[in-house]
Structure formats: structure tokens, C-alpha cells
Amino acid sequence: MEKYSELKLFFWFGTAIMVFLAVAVIFLALYYQSRLYKLKKKEAFLRMRAILNKEKEERARISSDLHDTVIGNLVSISIYFGMLKNQIKDPEVLGVINGIDDELKDTKQLIRQITYNLMPPLLSNNGFIASVEDFLRKSSVRYGFTYELNHLGFIEFSKQSSYDVLLILREFITNSCVHGGATDISITLTTAKKHNIITYKDNGAKYDFVAEMNRSTGYGLKNILSRVENLHGSLHQRESATHNEFVIFVKSAD
């Protein structure tokens, strides 16, 4: 009987050790997977950050090249055409030259618009608020919506952050008008507890941001989320019966 009890005790002791080892292996596997996931997420974040920073540099470079070289060359060509017009008397030839000159003027205006979209000069010269207001005004004329921009008590973003936030808002506005058919857009900028809070609303077709981002083959919504993550910020979609409403938290400049 005593021998049986010893065997039974040995059996339960061995079973306990095996269970403990099994739990330890499972724990280590889960810990390894969790750590691997965090490392991959950090690597993906750093890679995306590098891509976005490189994109900003390229935008600035292309914008500068277009402004300093292409527009300058077009201006020189227009001057030459002006000199030709003063010397040519043939109405038919003069009509062709005037037509070419008009095309040059349209091309210059188009390139100026492209350089503005690549790197808004207002952002460097007048700051974030002026840039947002300017884009809202121009977009409202183009798409036919009304807008409201509130920024009482708002602390300006750092120069680095303001560029990304401006592109986020531009992406939201374009998405609201092109895909949502919005006729009313509201943006409220506030600052609390060293964080800038951006509240964006539109009355366009309602959608779930995450579901739409995963379903879409485009990059608009993906770019919004990537830029928010690049700012170490967070994006939240609020439930609303009548509006799409999003809140973005980003650390303020101070």
C-alpha cells in the first residue's frame, strides 16, 4: 500500500511538472510572438516614417525645380513671343502666335497650381491655420460646399508636424467631396494637455474608416492613417446619426 502511494505521488508530481513545462512553453511562445509582432510593427513604423520624410523632401525639391526652372523658362519663351508679335504683321501668323502664347500662360498657371499642391508656400510663410483656410476656400469653390474652421485657443504645430497634418486634412476634404458628396465640412482645432485635437466633420455619405480602408485599393485613407502614426498621434471615429466625425490627437509644439 505504501509503495502504491509513493507511485501515485510520483505520478502526480510528474504530471504537475509536465503541465508546468507545457504552460511555460506556451507562455514563451506567446511572449516570443508578442515581441516579434512589436518588432515588426516598430520596423514598419520606422520604414513608413522614412518614406514619408523622403516624400516631403522630394515634394519640396520638385516644387522648387518646377518654380525655379520650368516656370522661368516659360516666362522667357513668353517674352520672346511678345517680341515676335511686335514684328509680325501677317494676321494669320499673328493669330497662331497669340494662340501659342495663351497656351503658355495656361501652362504656367497649371504648373503654379502643381507646385502649390506639392508644397504650399503659405505653410512656410503664413503658418498652418492660413494654409488650411486657403485650401478650404479653394476647394469650396471647386466642389461647391460650405465650411467652418474654428481654432480658438489652438497652439500651432511644429513646422515638421504641420506639413503632415495639412496633408491629412487635405486628404479628408478631398475624400469627403469626391467620394462622399459632402456639402458641409467643419474643422475644429483645440489644444488641451499638451495635445492638439482636430475634430473633422462632414455631411457626406457615411462610412466606417477602418472597414473602408481595408476594402479600398486606393491609398487615400491608408495615407491618412500612416501620417497619423508618423506623428505618434491617434485617430478615432465617433458615432453620429447625421455626420462622419473624426477626432485626431497629436502632440502640440510646446
UniProtKB/TrEMBL annotation:
A Pfam family: HisKA_3
InterPro entries, sorted: HATPase_C_sf, Sensor_HK_TwoCompSys, Sig_transdc_His_kin_sub3_dim/P
Domain spans labelled Signal transduction histidine kinase subgroup 3 dimerisation and phosphoacceptor: 58-121
Sequence intervals crossing the membrane: 12-32
Keywords: ATP-binding, Kinase, Membrane, Nucleotide-binding, Phosphoprotein, Transferase, Transmembrane, Transmembrane helix, Two-component regulatory system
EC number(s) recorded for this UniProt protein: 2.7.13.3
Top-level taxon in the UniProt lineage: Bacteria
Reactions listed under catalytic activity: ATP + protein L-histidine = ADP + protein N-phospho-L-histidine
Protein name from the UniProt record: histidine kinase
Organism: Kaistella pullorum
Organism ancestry: Bacteria, Pseudomonadati, Bacteroidota, Flavobacteriia, Flavobacteriales
